[in-house]
Amino acid sequence: MNPYVKLDVENGIGTIEFFHPQSNSLPGEILQKLAGTITEAGINDDILVVILKSGGDRVFCAGASFDELMAIENEDQGKQFFSGFANVINAARKCPKFIIGRVQGKAVGGGVGMASATDYCLATKFASVKLSELAIGIGPFVVGPPIERKIGLSAFSQLTINATKWHSAQWAREKGLFAEVYDSADEMDKAIKELAEKLVSSNPDSMRELKQVMWEGTENWDSLLVQRAAMSGKRVLSEFTRKTLVKLKKG
User: pTM to 2 decimals?
Assistant: First the structure.
């Protein structure tokens, strides 16, 4: 299947789905479409609540596109690529509608950041998480703010420093990333449907104001995350990271 981002609207619920055949990794084009679609859902009067999900059943999001990381040739290109993640996070932050996250499988790097940028995230027991950036010589600079906001500095540090370890979905729930963890995708989808339908019948003005309250203190993220993108863009050019990427590419 070809990569895609799509928005379906039904009964006040806007469902945004993204997909990439390489474990739902995110190249720049998909990141741009995803940020734009989240913004579009936010201004659509027919949408009262948003669900963010990915296609497939094994991996929610594998983070940055490996091929695009290897293709970065200078700091400007690096900043532009990592700004794609910044734009998705900021679009979710500024969307006036609550965003429910649906995490059916593993989340790595930017995928953990996207889950953290939702307002209420549900997952299956297969949704283990990992921040692998340091292991390849970069660091979760861009996704750090939303993850730290959601789970706290201590848990974020654990994910960041132990960069090759998978942390279970139950661990993520205990730290606050996931609200609930289910045994199957069917159970999770039933819970998401029930929650979304409740929110559709809630006062939209109150939900909008509550979201603003919940995200207080993040008003500087438009500039902060771009600065972080520049940090990642510089690190990806380092000799350490280049050698590591080549080694990983060879398997």
Answer: 0.96
The domains of the chain are located at: 4-185
Looking at residue 131, the DSSP 8-state letter turns out to be -
Q: In what order do the strands lie in the sheet with 106-108?
A: 59-61, 106-108, 129-130
Nearest to 50 by CA among 41, 63, 59: 41
Instruction: Pull the structure tokens for residue 209.
Output: 């104001």
Superfamily of domain 4-185: 2-enoyl-CoA Hydratase; Chain A, domain 1 (3.90.226.10)
The tens place of each residue's pLDDT in the chain, 251 residues long, gives 899 999 999 999 999 999 999 999 999 999 999 999 999 999 999 999 999 999 999 899 999 888 899 999 999 999 999 999 999 999 999 999 999 999 999 999 999 999 999 999 999 999 999 999 999 999 999 999 999 999 999 999 999 999 999 999 999 999 999 999 999 999 999 999 999 999 999 999 999 999 999 999 999 999 999 999 999 999 999 999 999 988 887 76
Which secondary structure element, helix H or strand E, spans residue 9, and what is its range?
strand 4-10
Q: Which residue has the tokens 């993108």?
A: 229
Q: Which two tokens stand for residue 221?
A: 């993220």
Question: In 65-162, at which residue ranges do the beta strands (DSSP E only) sit?
Answer: 99-103, 106-108, 120-124, 129-130
